[in-house]
Amino acid sequence: MLNIGRWFSFSSPEERKEREEAYLQMVFPFGEAQKQLEQGLLKTCVQAPVNENEKLYQLLVVKGLYAQTRPEKLEDTLGQWYRGALLKKWPDSARAALLALAQLSLEAEAPDALPVEKQVSDRTAEIQKDLLPKLKAKAKTLWRR
After folding, report:
1. CA 74 → CA 7, 106, 118, 138, distances in Å?
2. Which of 78, 114, 119, 121 has a CA 20 to 30 Å removed from the CA of 128?
3. Are 47 and 93 in contact (CB under 8 A)?
4. Does the pLDDT at position 45 exceed 60?
5. What pTM, to 2 d.p., does this model score?
6. Among 130, 39, 33, 37, which residue's Cα sits nearest to residue 78?
7. Which of 139, 76, 131, 84 is nearest to 103 (CA)?
8. pLDDT in tens, 46-87
């Protein structure tokens, strides 16, 4: 069924600005410094054959998935992300590093607790060992339906 009501739903510039600020607060709760730090970590830790904007986009997607998905559905949701068309060129190590950066970033409770490169590489190794095999298995079983 078409949702025609949304076609005529306009928002004022103030409402759009409020939504943008709320989103940025959810994704980067510690502001511009956090964004700059994470962009630097994307450059050094996530070795994928894509540009920096694509890496940042995928980081925002994964942070959104972690923040908005119920825990019991998280593995299924990450499995869908894992086999997404935009990640076809990404090696598993880059996917794991992106997941690690998103997890550590969301776990930080203060600006001085934001992740550093060593933490990201340690968490990446854990993810490659524990989570990626589960996501790969889910990807295989979901295609058989």
Report:
1. 32, 15, 25, 12
2. 114
3. yes
4. yes
5. 0.82
6. 130
7. 131
8. 999 999 999 999 999 999 999 888 989 999 999 999 988 899
